[in-house]
Write a structure and sequence with these properties.
The structure is a single chain. This protein has 14 helices and 24 strands. The protein is of the alpha/beta class. The strands form 6 sheets. The protein has a 4-stranded mixed β-sheet with strand order 22-23-1-24, with helices on one face. Strands 2-15-17-16 form a 4-stranded mixed β-sheet. It has a 4-stranded mixed β-sheet with strand order 4-5-3-14, covered by helices on one side. Strand 18, helix 10 and strand 19 form a beta-alpha-beta unit. Helix 8 packs parallel to helix 12. The mean pLDDT is 95. It binds uridine-diphosphate-2(N-acetylglucosaminyl) butyric acid.
């Protein structure tokens, strides 16, 4: 198993390029199942989650290939769904990646049925899929749970009005995809507004779908008889970009992320500015520089356009070095403070009560051996290690590799002393 070894204490500076967004690329891969021809996803990041999703699609009979990177080094994933024969996602694959549930809507819409392993809880919370199933039932599907698998049967789905009981990103994506081939109009109310939902809507429209309202909390989809394949460029990864900018800010450096979309990152950039960092945002590039102290502040995660839960752990690492008290409240997932125990081992002063963490800033963190527990928690430990005195080892970075494309290379390009070694 690989580990990261980090010598902390050097301010990071320079420019790196953002990768394509994992959480946009995965639904785009699922959307390929709706099409009658091949789909090309340009700039899909080279990540384990992307290859796992490729395996899910191959298991169904699709052909999935990575095309050579163009001049800009970005890869294209080409998916041909015409050979799909099995509408099934097995336990072995779903257990390693919950996002496999995104195949549900497209399979039911295109093939009238699906059988997928019910994802279990995961490190950050219980994460049920009741809203996905409720929506499909309202569209006329029958769902049942048989031996740990969700089985869904439907003729052609019918349009329906569906109200989500909570904001759900993949739930909105799943039902938006299902609705594209339904008979009649579907209205999704209290829909998620995340930029990744909008990116998917844009791709579906290029495939011939009739969608309105993405980016608001009401999305209307008029079903059509068929969709064609398309070529779509994945949006930049706002979570990776935020993590890299925080790496600059926590080390008192000056980092520019090229290709980042500042509009999609507004909550994080506003909080960085509130903490005393200078933020320079252009369309297509964001720069963050910090010279003065980190001003402690309070933050609360919430659905987009609120502060993203996927940046909570990384921002908490930053606030550990703040000049006073911060309160960080997590409202999306019930168990997303696993980084706290590890940060404490570096000297951070954090108390957790329910969904709130009280962080008292300290002068310095000290390097330590640390255990990564989930994707974003791992990133927060790396950030803490970059700012700490001495050496930090982050174990189990396979969690991090699920969502960050060669993070150590990007950080090293900014001057970080970080290496990947085999344990
Ligand atoms: N929920 C339900 N029932 C449902 C669906 C969701 O109770 O049917 C609850 C969840 O348990 C959670 C809340 O609603 O408490 C929000 O969950 P959501 O469905 O929005 O999460 P998701 O779609 O499973 C996506 C991202 C996550 C990100 C969340 C929140 C993908 C592939 N995953 O998950 O990304 O944290 O939205 O923004 O898009 C990550 O990249 O590290 C990651 C975990």
């Amino acid at each position: 198993m690989d580990i990261f070894v980090i010598q902390g204490g050097s301010p990071l500076s320079g420019t790196v390029r953002v990768s394509g967004a994992k959480n946009a690329a995965l639904p785009l891969m699922a959307a390929s199942l709706l099409a009658e021809g091949p789909m090309e996803i340009v700039g899909a990041p080279r990540l384990r989650d992307i290859s796992t999703f490729g395996k899910v699609l191959r298991h169904m009979g699709a052909s999935v290939e990575r095309l050579d990177a163009g001049g800009d080094g970005r890869e294209t994933v080409r998916i041909d769904p015409r050979t799909v024969g099995k509408a099934e996602a097995p336990y072995e694959l779903v257990k390693t990646m919950r996002a496999s549930v995104l195949v549900l809507g497209p399979l039911v819409a295109r093939h009238g049925r699906a059988r997928i392993s019910l994802p279990g809880g995961c490190a950050i919370g219980a994460r049920p899929i009741d809203q996905h199933l409720k929506g499909l039932e309202l569209m006329g599907a029958k769902t049942s749970l048989v031996e740990g698998y969700v089985e869904v049967d439907a003729g052609r789905l019918s349009g329906a009005t569906i109200y989500f009981d909570m904001k759900t990103v993949t739930g909105t994506e799943n039902l938006m995809m299902a609705a594209t081939l339904a008979r009649g109009t579907t209205v999704l109310k209290n829909a998620a507004r995340e930029p990744e939902v909008c990116d998917l809507a844009r791709a579906l429209r290029a495939m011939g779908a009739d969608i309105e309202g993405e980016g608001t909390d009401e999305i209307a989809v008029r079903g059509t008889d068929s969709l064609r394949g398309t070529r779509h460029e994945v949006m930049p990864d706002r979570i990776e970009a935020s993590t890299l900018l925080l790496a600059g800010a926590i080390t008192g450096g000056d980092v520019t992320v090229r290709g980042a979309d500042p509009f999609a990152m507004d909550a994080v950039l506003t909080k960085l500015a509130e903490s005393g960092a200078e933020v320079f945002a252009d369309p297509g590039s964001v720069r963050v520089r910090r010279e003065g102290p980190i001003r402690s502040l309070n933050l609360e995660t919430s659905p987009y356009p609120g502060f993203p839960t996927d940046v909570q752990a990384q921002f908490m690492a930053y606030l550990c070095l703040g000049d006073g008290f911060s309160i960080v409240r997590e409202t999306i997932f019930e168990n997303r403070f696993m980084h706290v125990a590890e940060l404490r081992r570096m000297g951070a002063r954090i108390e957790v009560s329910g969904n709130a963490a009280a962080v008292k800033g300290v002068q310095a963190l000290s390097g330590a051996p640390l255990m990564a527990t989930d994707l974003r928690a791992s990133a927060s430990l790396v950030l803490a290690g970059l700012a700490a005195n001495g050496t930090t080892e982050v174990l189990r970075i396979y969690h991090l590799d699920r969502g960050y494309e060669a993070l150590e290379n990007k950080l090293a390009r900014l001057g970080a002393r970080i290496s990947r070694v085999k344990e």
